[in-house]
Amino acid sequence: MFDTLSDRLSGIFTKLRGKGRLTDADIDATAREIRMALLEADVALPVVKGFIANVKERARGSEVSEALNPAQQIIKIVNDELINVLGGEGRRLQFAKNPPTVIMLAGLQGSGKTTLAGKLARWLKGQGHQPLLVAADLQRPNAVGQLQVLGGRAGVEVYAPAPGNGVGDPVQVARDSIEHAKRAARDIVIVDTAGRLGIDAEMMQQAANIRDAVQPDEVIFVIDAMVGQDAVRTAEAFRDGVGITGVVLSKLDGDARGGAALSVREVTGQPILFASTGEKLEDFDVFHPDRMASRILG
Ligand code: GDP
């Protein structure tokens, strides 16, 4: 992930080494190159525009430390702007005042929702919580079975419709799971919902119905970072159709160009809460904008 962008940026910074002072022309040329590098990495255009405007403004201003040489100054500004687009300080999961905290997962089929449900459950359990996983994805064959396997690995109970009862109603399953969580003294409920390969009205409506039934404290949109510009459009559709409160980037271990990761915070207006970096349950961590920025800058 980000390999090409990292290489491009380091090439741009190298050219500034040895310069005593940056002229406006130097700043403009550097900004243009950074712009190209971001666009080629599939970063959404409005995000690129804001990013470049900030870089230029700060590079021209005198706020950056005199102790840094021009190349270091630009690196510092780009680093700060990367942290900024990735969410600044970051935000942590919000818990309900009166448990259970309800976390609903939404996203396209294949985005990594079910895997994330298992990861989140394992992580929360490690923090001393008593999570309940809820199989409300009744669309994809075997999503329920997959969640049961993941729950088994994480040592977390899975609430699922009884087998042999036909397809079942995911809204009802989700609603009943909250009652079950209260009875079983679970303090967090993680609801896995159905995705489709593309966005459709019926799917969005079902997600909205589940949301209304469970009144989630967090609606987490899972975005496959490999998908590029499409991921951003999908994020907008979920923001408008279901209302999301946070984002999880999945498949950050892949060799995508990284544009989705850099765009989604700004496009959705919601923070990136976690990052998923592999198929195993432990390939998962809280998202740190500053660490991601350092990784991009190499
Ligand atoms: P869902 O349809 O949204 O529930 O997606 P799944 O959780 O079933 O994930 C789809 C595929 O992506 C599965 O083969 C997962 O093992 C894989 N997957 C999920 N998260 C990651 C990740 O962070 N990295 C990689 N490499 N694969 C992942």
Structure description:
Part of the signal recognition particle protein translocation system, which is composed of SRP and FtsY. Keywords: Cytoplasm, GTP-binding, Hydrolase, Nucleotide-binding, Ribonucleoprotein, RNA-binding, Signal recognition particle. It is an enzyme of class 3 (hydrolase). Its main location: cytoplasm. It is built from eleven helices and eight strands. The chain has 298 residues and is α/β, with parallel strands linked by helices. It has an eight-stranded mixed sheet with strand order 3-2-4-1-5-6-7-8, sandwiched between helices. α1 runs antiparallel to α4, α3 packs antiparallel against α4 and α5 runs parallel beside α6. It is elongated and about 70 Å long. The relative contact order is 0.17. The site of guanosine-5'-diphosphate has 19 residues, from α5.
Given as residue ranges, the uncertain stretches (5+ residues, pLDDT < 50) are none
Average pLDDT, all residues: 91
Question: How far apart are the first and last residues' alpha carbons, in Å?
Answer: 12 Å
Strand adjacency order, main sheet: 3-2-4-1-5-6-7-8
- Beta-strand portion reads 5-15%
DSSP E strands, number = 8
SSE series = HHHHEHEHEHEHEHEHEEH
Class from secondary-structure proportions: alpha/beta
Overall outline: elongated
Helix content: 40-55%
Estimated radius of gyration: 21 Å
Q: Given the structure, what is the number of helices?
A: 11
Ligand kinds: guanosine-5'-diphosphate
For the largest beta-sheet, the strand count, sense and barrel status come to: 8 strands, mixed
GO molecular function, one term: GTPase activity
Enzyme class: hydrolase
GO cellular component, one term: signal recognition particle
Subcellular location: Cytoplasm
